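Problem: given the chain below (194 residues), write out its structure.
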Amino acid sequence: MAAISTMGMSLYTLDSLINKYIVEASSKLETAEPMIYKRLLDFTEYEQRKVTDFIVIHHTGFPDEDKDSTVNDIHELHQEVNGWAGVGYHYLIRKNGMIEQGRRPDMIGAHALHYNKTSIGICLAGNFDIGTPTRVQMSSAQELTLWLCNKYNIDPHKKNAILGHCDLNDTSCPGNNLYRELDEIREYCRYNGA
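Solution.
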């Protein structure tokens, strides 16, 4: 904080300045980077994303099973089955709330056809057409989304700032039970200063 000269200031002006610095400091605390476990994943190739306009929320959505997955599981599946460079999501949130980094955050993802060059992808482990996200998953999703909104200057008040995969492509992802919770994530970001 810069030194403030109080000479010639009224108490009201001084109080206003102090409150301004308190608000700025508290908003910086609230938007600190959440605990993200970075994995050393081997990608075949990928390119840097030049702009980030919005966030896309996904679920792993394995058929007939609401199971937890690791980013390594998804990475292997996306490489071996899909033939991609590696995991298409930038982040995976496990059922226990752990956030794992997939693709490097500044790289183009492979998670939303036609929208990868301008978005960042968050995936929650589970099939939310049959199960529901855990409270700790939702808490981690809120914290991560808030941090990403601040990092990339995404305004959560805008209609298309935080979307479900189904808002962009013909899919049921992120599942009905998570899609219903997207407003909770948006409101958290709006209320907490993004």
